Amino acid sequence: MTARSAGVGEGAPLLDAVDLRVAFGGDEVVHGVSLRIMPGECVAVVGESGSGKSVTARSLLGLAGPGSRTTAERLTVLGRDVAEADERTWRSIRGRGIGLILQDALVSLDPLRPIGREIEDALRIHERMPAAERRRRAIELLDRVGMPDPPAAAGRRSGELSGGLRQRALIASALALDPPLVIADEPTTALDVTVQARILALLGEIRSRGTGLLLISHDLAVVGRLADRIIVMRDGAVIESGPADQLLRAPRTAYTRSLIDAVPTERPRGTRLVAAGAGPARTEPDLAAGPGDLAPAPRPEAVGSDAVLLRLDGVVRTFPVRGGRLTAVDDVTLSLSAGETLGLVGESGSGKTTVARLALGLADPDAGEVTLAGAPWSHRPERERRPLRRRIGAVYQDALSSFDPRWSVHGILDDAVALALPRASRRDRDRRIVELLDQVGLARPVAGRRPLTLSGGQRQRVAIARALATEPDVLICDEPVSALDVTVQAQILDLFDDLQRRRGLAMLFISHDLGVVRHMSDRVAVMRTGRIVESGDAEAVFGSPRHPYTAQLVADAPRVDA
Q1: Residue 437 is inside which H or E element, if any?
Q2: What residues contact residue 230 under an 8 Å CB cut-off, 6+ apart?
Q3: What are phi and psi of 33, to 5 degrees?
Q4: 10 Å Cβ neighbour count for 216?
Q5: Which residue of 175, 258, 342, 455 has the lowest C-beta tally within 10 Å?
Q6: What is the pLDDT of residues 74-128, one digit of tens each?
Q7: Do residues 342 and 525 make contact, with C-beta atoms less than 8 angstroms apart?
Q8: Is 135's pLDDT higher than 80?
Q9: 3-state secondary structure (DSSP) of residue 76
Q10: Looking at residues 307-320, what average pLDDT do you find?
């Protein structure tokens, strides 16, 4: 379907919204947003969580949510006035007229049906097409989005696919009816840099064929690759808009400038991403005057090999699979010294998280050994490892799933403090909890709240406080900021840096985001299919990569060309 066949005249917009407002009950959450999308144009809406960008996008599909009320001075989609459209009208527009790509493909795809069947259903509902033709079209769409072995993939369910492959399947489903307008809500968040680059290239391809694209994101580095125009939202209102290159080069508002500055790509090691007391950092509720308000302490002096705290020496880890064993980690050697950060990067499935589990003593290698503070760490009974566990902590990507939702923050931290200080009195444990909250920049009243009432950034600070409860020497950070807004991410990265400067922590920082790893790391190791393909000083590896795979990762990494 082309824009013309969809009923849009020559030079007419695919989408035209003027003074769009969305309210829930008596609370208005979107305040007078206006935007227009022409055929072949990409308009990006950026902002932090809670800025109203996703509610705005969903209201343009009649999906603002139960109890919502949407009004507009003018709202047309594909030439049709939908300001007062009923559900029957919206159903005739969705899919055929507007495709929707969401962030979480695992939730959006039916886990009980093969992805080929899911794509075919859109064709079955909207097109009179024989079953064999629908099957051929589904495989063709999977091939178009870069799905390996499309015929085989069509028979797999979403749970059998990686995050990147699920996202491609979701895009194939959204494009099944060749809609003239596509709304993509955070389509690349938490994806590997290489998969992210492929998804952005695919979206660029459909735009070049005349499809209009509304891209929702919090990441200006991502939208800068694709957008013709950018709209910046904050607290439900548009605060700035303009051509992408102009807005990124010379933003008019301090808020937009702070969004750009929060992107860690090409920001040197040791520089702060958020100015103390300024910009979006202060929008995170219930922050205490913590590390973000203090001048950075000097970085610990360089340490020698005798200060190595964690070493993985020739470790191998395999898992049983149908027909044999899969080698997830293959002859990996890494070392980590006091006061330094070693970045570990690679695609999903490269073995990064398995390395983290080996380092934490949650799994033993099939070959090789792990030592912690010079003592054997792997291949020991847990009762022998337990006294050393206080020396190594972990911070994971999804803090919420690592908490008992029934416990308050005080209970979560008290549990960790009690393990670290089993003989401490109740008063001493409470004092230690207050110290931990102060260290991570959380106000003391947060202790009485439960995880579900906290923002993503607050939950991650609690996770860091819990990891610090035992005063560890080593911190394993496995994708600790990949699910956070760019501004909250910047706060957490600054916090990690401050804590390391103060305490001399050694950190293994695992991420698929090269900009984050480059900003945080002294040294870096690049993994591919279980092996380290390149390692060395972070600036040397990223500035002059030797391995073709590393060079491709660097080339694919999004950056703000401001």
Answers
A1: helix 426-439
A2: 43, 44, 45, 46, 220, 223, 241, 242, 243, 244, 247, 248
A3: -80, 135
A4: 26
A5: 455
A6: 999 999 999 999 999 998 899 889 999 887 666 778 889 999 998 998 888 888 8
A7: yes
A8: yes
A9: strand
A10: 95
